[in-house]
Amino acid sequence: MAAVEQQLSEPTASENRFGITSKRSGGADERLASTGWFKKLIQRPEAGAAGGLLATIIIFAVLPGASNLYSLQGAMTFLTLSAELGIIATAAALLIIAGEFDLSVGSMIGFAGVVIGLTVRELGFPLWGGIAAAFAVAILVGYLNGLIVVKTRLPSFIVTLASLFILRGLSIAITRAVTGRTQIPYILQDVPDPGTASLFNGHIFTGFFQWMADQGWIAARSDGVPFVTGVPASIVWWIGITVIAGYVLTQTRYGNWIFATGGDQDVARNVGVPVGRVKISLFVCTACAATLLATIQVMEAGSADTTRGLLKEFEAIIAAVIGGVLLTGGYGTVYGVLFGSLIFGLVQMGIFYTGIDTDWFKVFLGLVILAAVLVNTYIRTKALGGGRGR
């Protein structure tokens, strides 16, 4: 009798200790089952963005008139657009993962360009000195944004929205007071260090591209110079920043601090994470990324304009969201942001090449944002086991 009672009291092979019958033979717990490579793949934060990029490539591949988009010249054009967005979106993504926003990025682009223009043309700084001055101002602006957010605990949305107006207003007011206009032209004219500009508007692999033109593999002008002379410096900066940010986020203690700060800053603070320093440093990073983009634009155009960077802060957030970064913080990857930036550049140029009315670009962008949020939320729910019964 005792043996029978013991047999009835113990769970059977197909039943776990909570009385839930397993659907797998042999009673193996589902949580112990091996996960397939495809399931692991779609559970990654950048999976939705990668799928969206693939779908975008296929869509424009079949649309009439879009064949030039995938030519060497067309590819370099949309890659350059993607790079300019990706530079600021990568820094913005790190800040969002840490649970904060920086809406002053776009205004910082215009303000940094003005600093470069005024210091070089009006104060006689060498080009490298003007760029250094712009980065010094960016560090100060980022530090103040972060310090106000940390000390006052005001929402970063409000603090940086104020910075957005302050920086844009300073750009216009100072430039008009000094030059009488809102642009600063001829910044690169007669500068004593023209080599500095090539770090930001030059090209790499120019010899290789010239060799391909000589072989007849890529299109060239009548004088033999290829239409695409090399890989633009902006793309190199973008790739470099993405690789460094990806390594920092996934392979360093500082990266763990970023995730912890965005996940639950009170818990993170209790276990020794310097939450305040992390946030302030990331605000400095977004300001410096904006200044880098401003420098690239000034070196390419040879001028500064107070209206540059308009709405770029929202485009950076869009690229981050498309790339799988959650606006609630604590989750995301910079490689997804790379895919999101590529989608942005591809769509922008794809609409141009196909002859579609560019007024529809914003509509498409809004739909992409909504779809990205829904897909990324679903994937994250599955990745964290949210699909199980509660």
Please provide a written account of the structure.
The protein is mainly alpha-helical. It has helices spanning 2-9, 37-42, 47-62, 72-97, 105-121, 127-152, 156-179, 195-201, 206-214, 233-251, 253-263, 265-270, 275-301, 312-322, 334-354, 361-383, and strands at 183-184, 203-204, 231-232, 304-305. The strands form 2 sheets. It has a two-stranded antiparallel ribbon with strand order 1-4. Strands 2-3 form a two-stranded antiparallel sheet. Helix 4 (72-97) packs parallel to helix 10, helix 4 (72-97) packs antiparallel against helix 13 and helix 5 (105-121) runs parallel beside helix 7. The radius of gyration is 26 Å and the shape is globular. The two termini are 38 Å apart.
Name the features.
single chain; 390 residues; mainly alpha; two-stranded antiparallel ribbon; 4 strands; 66% helix; globular; disordered N terminus
Write the layout of secondary structure elements.
Blueprint: H1 2-9, H2 37-42, H3 47-62, H4 72-97, H5 105-121, H6 127-152, H7 156-179, E1 183-184, H8 195-201, E2 203-204, H9 206-214, E3 231-232, H10 233-251, H11 253-263, H12 265-270, H13 275-301, E4 304-305, H14 312-322, H15 334-354, H16 361-383
Antiparallel strand pairs: 1-4, 2-3
Helix pairs in contact: 3-15, 3-16, 4-10, 4-11, 4-13, 4-14, 4-15, 5-6, 5-7, 5-13, 6-7, 6-13, 8-13, 10-11, 14-15
